[in-house]
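Budget justification note: compute hours in this period were largely spent on complex prediction jobs such as the one shown. Inputs:
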Amino acid sequence: MSEVISRRSFLMGVGVGAASALAATAVEPVRASEPVAADSWGVLVDLTRCNGCDSCALACKEANQRPEPDTVPVSLNSDAYSFVDRRQVVSDAGIEQQMPIKRQCMHCLHPACVSACTVGALTKSADGPVVYNDKKCIGCRYCQYACPFGVPTYDWENPLGLIHKCQFCISRLEEGQQPACVAGCPTGALRFGRRSNLLAQAHAQIDTNAGRYIEQVYGEAEAGGTSILYLSGVPFAAMGLPTLDSQAPSHYAEAMMKKTPVIGLTVAALASGVYWLAKRREFLAQPQVVAEEVTHDR
Amino acid sequence: MTAEIGVERRSSSAVPVLDRRMAVVLLAMMVVVGAVAGVVRLVLGLGATTNLSDSYSWGIWIGFDFGLIALAGVGFTMAAVAHILRRHEYHAAVRPAILAGLAGYVAVLLLLVLDLGRPDRFYNFILFWNPHSPLFEISWCVLLYTTVLIIETSPFIVEKLRWKRIEKLPRLLERIMLPVAILGVTLSTLHQSTLGTLYLNMPYRLHALWYTPLLPLMFLVSSIMAGLSLAAVVYWLAARLARKPVQPKIIFGLARGAAVVGLGYLALKLGEVIVSGDIGLALAPTRFAALWWTEMLVFVALPAVLILVSGRKSLQRTGIALMLILLGVLMNRFDATMFAQLLPSGASYFPHLIEWLTTAGILAAAALAWILGVRLLNIIEDDPPHHAGSE
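Corresponding output:
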């Protein structure tokens, strides 16, 4: 799957990336200080432009003040909130090829982790980022089971460990900057903007570059939509992205949870009713008691 | 279980007493070892004392936790039978059940705290609310329902303390028992079903044979089935421990109830798999299909048939059937938590020694507390205070 990239190949990647970055400037980079649109911030990941230089993952580590900022991460963990996965892909011509894909929190429009979190430590901010409050978290790790992308990780080595995940660089966004990974991408494979704009651009790119992309924007519908969107020349499943339907994963659970007060009141009423019936049956089973009560009333 | 009720006295001679003491000593040792292991876990953290990982994040603590909640459904089931359905013929089985419920829920709380990454913040669900979260609702219900169980257990203790000042307390407690029982049944219905809802947030992780929007109902029904089964088992155990005669009709009646609920559960599970079109998955030769059929046939259908066919003849056969039901419900919760989970490639888990020791210690503590309760309190009452219609 993935391999550790040496320092040299990393620097080479940066060089190659800088050249291809010029090609990407056709689309104006968007900044977070733009007027707030109705929809969320997003990132469009164009896998056909990614050369696997790992700059994004290293920029991420630095921005999040993770230990060992120079070591290229090979998985999501409490020290790396994003990483570049490597997948063996066989092209139409039958040539096996290693292809990179940046992975991080997808910042779902209807995040299951937020729905599941026992104490509300995970929240969906109005602007899109799914953010984590490490002061509330109790470490139950339910978010790890709810997330269909396997994103939240737990700090197992810490006796008082917490959950770790990408925060969409929310503090950078608030300062009007792009997320660190986007700012660190030299090839233009990562593009920051409003989700609806990015979607429109993605579809335009598919339409105008016949054969370059498969005709699907990953994240447009998956899991009810995600803020991170992917364009790819090979099937997304081959790149390790899960095949998900368009229903939010928390759909059924939330529908049930909303019924909690109704279920509670119904059960209490039913239980009281059954008690009354049982009591009445006993009462009717003893006619002599009825007679006594009647004479008593008179 | 033996059918020879008449030879009760003879069987409690010197050797079984010694065995009982041995059992108690063994349980106590398990508690001590478990407590030490628990301290080690709290000091060193999850990474050093468990084999859990990001791809296998819940292990036997959570498996036993959710399994125990289902079995501890014995408390609300019998409170409903006694106080709401007013089936006085089961009176003798109510106290052992309530006590088992309390022991079970305290064990659940201990296991839950051990599993938390931040056990020091276990109370945060009281401070920070997320009403969408199944685990939030479960936490609250378990907290409140444990309180209900303490109130339901309190008469057993209060009647033993012959203090002048609390002379009126037993009567007061008796008066509030009906609303408390209704509250207990309501809280239990909510969190037993919400344990099923918990898995609805994992449509891509829980195998389709288990995943269904009907999971909340299935969890509730199976907890009632487990509750009735455990009620019969703990009644028998309590009567033996207290050296009181066992009333076989109580055991047969509860077992029959468990079997009928079990057949309903079976119909629900089978019907769902057929209607949803997942029957193909059940017929495919996979590990998941094997697990699912084992749950359904060995641990639900077989015991239900065993109970209904053997009728009121063999306590032994009924006892085996009841144990099968209890194991089956435990297995169902373990399947949902561990064995029926679709894992990321490369994920594996075998519990760490500390996980085994702490789990064994907590289960032993619950058993020991229950045994001590039966020995010290009037759990199998000498003379039932109310027979049918005396109120």
